[in-house]
Specification:
The chain has helices at 6-17, 26-30, 33-87. It is an all-alpha fold and 88 residues long.
Length: 88
């Protein structure tokens, strides 16, 4: 049998009394919830960035479509409203 040193006995006693955390088992290290949380957070951030890029691209496309299709109509309507306001 291996002899226990004073340091090993002290470590075991501190763990027993709750003064020190127990060492994690390999299974606990593998299934660490904090690492899983950080991984899912980075995954969500990547997804959010992708959605933001697609949103900005769609916003630019819609603005270009409005400018092409309705830009002159909107400008004429606004000019007419201003003229009516000045004439009043």
């Amino acid at each position: 049998m291996a002899r226990k040193t004073v340091e090993n006995i002290r470590e075991e006693e501190m763990e027993f009394l709750g003064m020190k955390r127990k060492k994690k088992t390999p299974e606990e290290i593998l299934n660490d919830p904090i690492k899983k949380m950080e991984a899912s957070m980075t995954e969500r951030k990547k997804i959010q960035e992708g959605y933001m890029k697609s949103y900005k691209n769609a916003k630019v496309q819609v603005k270009e479509e409005i400018d092409e299709n309705q830009g002159t109509d909107i400008m004429e309507k606004m000019l007419g409203e201003r003229r009516d306001w000045v004439n009043e």
